[in-house]
Specification:
heterodimer, A: 5-stranded mixed β-sheet, B: 271 residues
């Protein structure tokens, strides 16, 4: 039996990043949990509505202990969305998925909760000024890479454009929030506008890509017009279709 | 202080061990002291290619664990005074290698030898990463076919990120050794051409070793091809590669290219 797709619209897959709170427990775990309880007592509700990632890379524990730790945390209303630095054998069904590739961010400050009465009083006042301050216009950012991107490497830059002076090898991937410029052959994958930018484009000196995507719309090598192969090409998005133009 | 070379490829069966032995013997014939080190713990082969399999007493893992001293484990080649082998252990696996242990052994070898050539195991796991970790120069062995080229590309990426040199912000010197090259098949399009491989990998070319029965013959004899049959085409190519490694400027010739041109001329005349 063959599957017939009734809806020709393609599914958009987008990337989005969230700031998660990372907990790195240390041994002995019961003492660490005690300290956590102490912290929670000082600032109740700190972990509510916050994505929490458990970093166990420095922790020499096995699966049952990890499971117990996750349960202990759940009891304290801390829901773990993912586990970082765990060996695959430590995780199983019913446990949070493994996470990797996290980028360090600044420490999250735990502020002690004000007494109830004061909070109420404050609520009547206008919102804190910090929120009203005019937003500083983000400076457009770009990442320049001066060497070829090798097979197995992935360059991820959600903040802006990526320029590569060299080729992108088969089995390598480049993911940018903005446009991607490749002064060489594109043999791997390039995904531009990864956080929802329909104006992003991909430029390359020679198109031999395995996969290209703009704003979640993707095209595999097989679906690409074979007359484009080997040419300098610009790719852009028009509606839900990737358009290609041969440059020069 | 000697130079540490890692012979690596990612993919298996492309000729790392053969090339390690051949380059080692070629450099040793220049009267330089050479140690070839087998990092393929558990699947050791270098001892066979060097014809020293019956003289292995201690191995790399013994030295790392402190069960034996380095001079006890080193095997001097019977044909060349300046060539030594540090064999791998066949009964252990790669987990027996430790970073501190490897660092100590390489450091010690560097003191006594002009060249320390490390024969990396295939793959990108612990054995391969430890073999490349302390290297000064990398020889990337590649066959002219797509899977080997892609794996080499992956290894080059690792040489630029996972080695001590890379971590110190220095650049790892990398050279491409194209092995099993068959000019007839490349011309017919059955194989990647030299230029294609160079374009994809974009690292300097150390040499092109032609596909030849002499290589297999030498391996079965238990001799590096640069010792077994010094006049053969692959041996000549390895000698040239060794000279380039030592810093000499030797132009690279593509094997069989001359014959190709003569063949064409001849063909035209006959027709």
């Amino acid at each position: 039996m063959t599957k017939v797709l009734t809806d020709a619209r393609s599914i958009r897959i987008k990337g989005r990043s969230f700031l998660a709170v990372v907990l790195s427990p240390d041994l002995p775990l019961d003492q660490w949990l005690e300290r956590l309880d102490d912290l929670a007592a000082r600032s109740a509700g700190f972990f509510l509505d916050r994505p929490v990632v458990l970093d166990v890379s420095e922790l020499p524990i096995k699966k049952p202990e990890l499971k117990q730790l996750i349960d202990d945390l759940a009891e304290r209303n801390v829901r773990v969305m993912g586990v970082e630095g765990a060996r695959p054998s430590m995780l199983g069904p019913g446990m949070p998925p493994a996470m990797k590739g996290g980028k360090p961010a600044s420490d999250v400050e735990v502020t002690a909760r004000e007494p109830e009465t004061e909070t109420e009083a404050e609520a009547a006042e206008p919102a804190p000024q910090r929120q009203e301050a005019p937003q500083v216009r983000a400076i457009p950012q770009s990442l320049v890479i001066d060497e070829p991107v090798r097979s197995g490497q992935s360059i991820i830059f959600p903040e802006g454009d990526i320029t590569i002076v060299g080729s992108v090898a088969s089995g390598a991937e480049v993911i940018a929030g903005g446009s991607i410029h490749i002064y060489g052959a594109l043999r791997g994958r390039a995904m531009a506008g990864s956080i929802g930018n329909t104006n992003a484009r991909i430029f390359c000196r020679r198109l031999e890509a395995e996969l290209i995507a703009i704003d979640g719309i993707y095209k595999m090598a097989e679906d690409m017009d074979s007359s484009l192969r080997g040419h300098a090409v610009q790719l852009s998005l028009e509606g839900d279709t990737i358009m290609a133009d041969i440059l020069f | 202080m000697g130079k540490v070379i890692v012979v690596t490829s990612g993919k298996g069966g492309v000729g790392k061990t053969t090339s390690t032995a051949a380059l080692g013997a070629a450099l040793a014939q220049r009267n330089e002291k050479v140690a070839v080190v087998d990092f393929d713990v558990g699947l050791r082969n270098l001892d066979l290619v060097m014809g020293a399999e019956r003289r292995v007493v201690y191995d790399l893992v013994n030295v790392i664990n402190g069960d034996a001293k380095l001079p006890q484990a080193l095997i001097r080649d019977k044909r060349l005074d300046t060539l030594f082998l540090l064999p791998a252990s066949q009964t252990r696996d790669k987990d027996a290698l430790t970073e501190e242990g490897v660092e100590r052994v390489i450091g010690e070898l560097k003191k006594y030898f002009d060249w320390v050539i490390c024969d990396s195991p295939a793959g990108i796991e612990k054995g391969a990463t430890l073999a490349m970790r302390h290297a000064d120069v990398a020889v990337v062995v590649t066959n002219p076919e797509v899977s080997s080229v892609r794996d080499s590309d992956r290894i080059i990426g690792m040489l630029d990120s996972k080695t001590l040199k890379a971590e110190n912000g220095e650049r790892m010197e990398k050279h491409l050794l194209l092995t099993r090259y068959d000019s007839n098949r490349a011309e017919r399009g059955d194989m990647l051409k030299v230029d294609d491989v160079l374009e994809i990998l974009s690292i300097p070319l150390l040499g092109i070793i032609p596909e030849s029965m002499d290589v297999l013959k030498a391996s079965n004899l238990g001799a590096p091809v640069t010792l077994a049959d010094q006049r053969s085409a692959p041996a000549q190519a390895y000698f040239e590669a060794a000279r380039r490694l030592a810093g000499e400027v030797v132009p690279v010739t593509i094997p069989g290219e001359k014959r190709g041109i003569f063949g064409k001329l001849f063909g035209r005349k006959a027709a």
